[in-house]
Amino acid sequence: MFVLDRIEEETAVIEWNGQTIMLPSALLPLGAKEGDLLEIFLKIDHEGTRRRRERIEEKAKRLWE
């Protein structure tokens, strides 16, 4: 369970399993306040990752031309 511990200026301090996670407060849902429980989901963007790797490989290739 993720708990919004506090908001410090532009940083959200979140507690999770005894650890502290700091995120930009702009990522919080509207109306989030101290003590709220947060659901956080992470998902890999496979297509975006593939495109990013292709761009990096293309730039690296041009360096050696």
From TrEMBL:
InterPro entries assigned to the protein according to its UniProt record, in alphabetical order: DUF3006 (IPR021377)
Origin: domain of life: Bacteria
Protein name, per record: DUF3006 domain-containing protein
